[in-house]
């Protein structure tokens, strides 16, 4: 039986790599891909997601459903410096998009699918959590009918990638993240920068992909990203943030987790979007999040390359 999943994306470069991994794995029944504003606008994220499905030749099998076009309470905050204005690092610019997003809203799609497949759906969230927060507010029972939620976001022991304390997905919509973390999901796993920064795709890995339309796409879409990453971090690589969240959905053994109480800062001048992890249970609150503390990075990279290789 394939694992029933919904991918929630703000397709950007690494979301696209996560979609490639999910679909090419052959182990996921992707019920749908919901889009949200984040790296780029909702419209651009949706267009990019359709392009990636066309690259996979799955555009007629997997539907794309649009969600929120802005955070719950804050203005949009795009990340064009990292993903380019188009969101795919300039790759597939001349690819015509011949499919459109499905009718309806992502929030209703998530609720409907979770109701229809109670206890079976894994939500893989690789974007700001606006859609899931809206879904929880609209249908609180969702919390008990979802199988599990895997969130790429946050950082609990390192520095942020937008501000000194905040990771992008949390920073864009901290109110949404707080709602999701406080909703009471029994099985919520946080795949934060603490582990995704160890899942680094290098030029050697790309060479190992061989020569295929997907391999050429991966090379083209990550080229600029790797340059930016080198400037910022001194290593030429593409951090596989979102693909690792998909990897965890495929195989939880790839990471070590520990359950802690985690909350999100929403009222701070310097720390909005910070995922605050109560390692010593100072607040005496029930642990709500399985925090990823370690990752078998080499094993994950092998899985990624093996799955995408021609
Ligand atoms: O911080 C990395 C996350 O923010 C990834 O999901 C990336 O796509 C951006 O959305
Ligand atoms: Ca993303």
UniProtKB/TrEMBL annotation:
<feature type="domain" description="Inosine/uridine-preferring nucleoside hydrolase">
    <location>
        <begin position="5"/>
        <end position="302"/>
    </location>
</feature>
<protein>
    <submittedName>
        <fullName>Nucleoside hydrolase</fullName>
    </submittedName>
</protein>
<dbReference type="InterPro" id="IPR036452">
    <property type="entry name" value="Ribo_hydro-like"/>
</dbReference>
<keyword id="KW-0378">Hydrolase</keyword>
<dbReference type="GO" id="GO:0016787">
    <property type="term" value="F:hydrolase activity"/>
</dbReference>
<keyword id="KW-0326">Glycosidase</keyword>
<dbReference type="InterPro" id="IPR001910">
    <property type="entry name" value="Inosine/uridine_hydrolase_dom"/>
</dbReference>
<dbReference type="InterPro" id="IPR023186">
    <property type="entry name" value="IUNH"/>
</dbReference>
<dbReference type="Pfam" id="PF01156">
    <property type="entry name" value="IU_nuc_hydro"/>
</dbReference>
